[in-house]
Amino acid sequence: MKLLKYILFIIILIVSIIFIIKLNELNLVDQQPIKIKFPYISNMEGYEDGIKVWEAIILTLSIGVFLGFAIALFQIISQKTDIISLKSKVRRLRNELDGLRNQSLEDDIDLEDEINIDDEL
């Protein structure tokens, strides 16, 4: 299953690279690639005219992947803390249960039956 997943990812990567190359070839104006201006990036040296379309796509996808990993990391950490607390609770309850199992039955345990047999007859 993992091999199939890796092959699928490689196919998606190859198709994406081909798409970006074709996109770069199609988006030419006067034999110059189309450029996109982003706020804050346009102020940086070398990017006054903007960035190419394929660079914008790669930048946007990279930021999305980074944010997705960050969100997943926070969820994993919170789930790990939940698991640790639940494991400690299970360990505490198991110790309590083992203590109750090891008590002898004659230790001040009075079993009383609330059903009165004479009333039913």
Give an overview in words.
This protein has 121 residues and is mostly helical. The protein has one domain. It has 3 helices and 4 strands. The strands form 2 sheets. The chain has a two-stranded antiparallel sheet. A two-stranded antiparallel ribbon has the order 3-4. A hairpin with a 2-residue loop joins strand 1 (28-29) and strand 2 (32-33). The chain is elongated, with a radius of gyration of 33 Å. The termini are far apart. The relative contact order is 0.05.
Kindly summarize this structure in a few lines.
The protein has 121 residues and is mostly helical. The protein has helices at residues 2-26, 53-101, 117-120; strands at 28-29, 32-33, 35-36, 51-52.
**Tell me, what's the shape?**
elongated
Instruction: Please indicate the count of domains.
Output: 1
Strand line-up of the largest beta sheet:
1-2
What Rg do the Cα atoms give? 33 Å
Average pLDDT, all residues:
84
The proportion of strand residues reads 5-15%
The total strand number stands at 4
State the low-pLDDT regions, or none.
Answer: none
The N- to C-terminal Cα distance equals 68 Å
Largest sheet: 2 strands, antiparallel
Query: Structural class, from helix and strand content?
Result: mainly alpha
The ordered H/E elements are: HEEEEHH
Overview features:
two-stranded antiparallel ribbon, two-stranded antiparallel sheet, single chain, 64% helix, mainly alpha, elongated, 121 residues, 3 helices
SSE layout and pairing:
Layout: H1 2-26, E1 28-29, E2 32-33, E3 35-36, E4 51-52, H2 53-101, H3 117-120
Antiparallel strand pairs: 1-2, 3-4
